[in-house]
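Researcher: Quick test of sequence recovery. Tokens follow.
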């Protein structure tokens, strides 16, 4: 009888199955990985054969399901096979490897039975094939369902991050526009002056953000729009917007002179947004009546834009954590914790880096470094 054969040769069958699995590329089977797979299936197959030898059809169906699969609820074999498929996905295995695990057992049973001249009846082979069919179907179904769920989750996460980026940048531009409008209202200024220019640029920036988002939706791609531009003009524009923040918060912004010949090749709006974010954070977290410094240097083949604040410094374990999405350490939680993450992403998209140097007891120096492309 097949049931007696399986009971008497259980360890040998499992040993051979593990040896077969180990020979396949990237499939190093262990007892832990197979806990919900082949050993459990072998025990369930043995119990199914016992139930059928006793003509207990109901018990057989509860353990292994009927022909054609589990129509309404998973059998015991279905539950453990589904867990096996889910576990293999988590371990990074492919769909064909899920099928191979059960195929190995079928081949091993046949080979060992031939070696030991153990005859099986046709109904016993039918039971074996039914159990294997149900196990493979349920394992593959769960594997595929879990994989699709993981893909959907990643898609939602990516979409959420992009939406957060758009909302954050729009919020920054709207904040600058609001400050400019307020300054014009209080001072009776016209749109012709410098403050009016800041307002116009902020509105233009919001329009470009929206247009870029719409273009990306249409094209399903990531726009580049890189160009060579003057670093001095970039710093000048960033200063014009930041000056409003310094007045509102009663702080001082000091900007060093920039070589007019200094140029970089990048997406100007992305780099401007990153620099504006660093300046905004500097005002937000620095002490009242303190100084914020914006300096530009050429270090080797890199143009470095540095913003030094007066926040008092960071804890040592916060230096990298502050660049992670939705992380906030300061008392001011008016934002959503995406600013530095988006700024770093903007800079790295154009081949640059964004780093922080901690000055305990004083503040932090955030530095954007971009490849220099100044023409000599």
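Model:
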């Amino acid at each position: 009888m097949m049931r007696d054969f399986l009971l008497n040769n259980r360890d040998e069958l499992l040993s051979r199955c593990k040896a077969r699995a180990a020979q396949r590329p990237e499939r190093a089977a262990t007892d832990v990985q197979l806990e919900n797979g082949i050993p459990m299936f072998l025990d369930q197959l043995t119990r199914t054969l016992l139930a059928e030898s006793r003509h207990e059809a109901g018990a057989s169906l509860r353990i292994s399901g009927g022909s054609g699969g589990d129509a309404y609820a998973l059998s015991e074999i279905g539950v453990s096979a589904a867990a096996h498929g889910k576990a293999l996905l988590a371990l990074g295995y492919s769909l064909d490897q899920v099928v191979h695990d059960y195929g190995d057992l079928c081949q091993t049973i046949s080979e060992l039975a031939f070696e030991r001249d153990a005859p099986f009846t046709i109904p016993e082979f039918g039971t074996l094939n039914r159990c294997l069919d149900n196990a493979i179907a349920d394992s593959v179904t769960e594997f595929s369902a879990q994989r699709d769920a993981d893909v959907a989750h990643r898609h939602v996460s990516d979409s959420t991050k992009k939406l957060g980026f758009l909302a954050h940048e729009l919020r920054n531009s709207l904040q600058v526009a609001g400050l400019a409008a307020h300054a014009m209202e209080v001072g009776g200024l016209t749109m012709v002056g410098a403050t009016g220019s800041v307002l116009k640029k902020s509105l233009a920036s919001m329009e470009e953000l929206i247009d870029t988002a719409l273009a990306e939706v249409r094209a399903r791609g990531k726009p580049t729009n890189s160009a060579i531009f003057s670093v001095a003009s970039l710093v000048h524009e960033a200063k014009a917007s930041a000056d409003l923040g310094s007045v509102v918060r009663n702080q001082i912004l000091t900007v060093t002179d920039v070589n007019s010949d200094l140029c970089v090749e990048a997406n100007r709006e992305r780099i401007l947004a990153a620099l504006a974010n660093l300046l905004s954070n500097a005002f937000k977290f620095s002490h009242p009546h303190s100084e914020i410094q914006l300096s530009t240097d050429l270090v080797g083949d890199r143009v470095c834009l540095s913003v030094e604040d007066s926040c008092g410094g960071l804890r040592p374990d916060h230096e990298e954590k502050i660049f992670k999405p939705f992380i906030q350490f300061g008392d001011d939680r008016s934002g959503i914790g995406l600013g530095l993450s988006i700024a770093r992403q903007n800079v790295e998209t154009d081949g640059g880096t964004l780093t922080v140097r901690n000055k305990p007891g004083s503040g932090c120096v955030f530095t954007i470094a971009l490849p220099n492309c100044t023409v000599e």
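The two ends are 89 Å apart (CA to CA).
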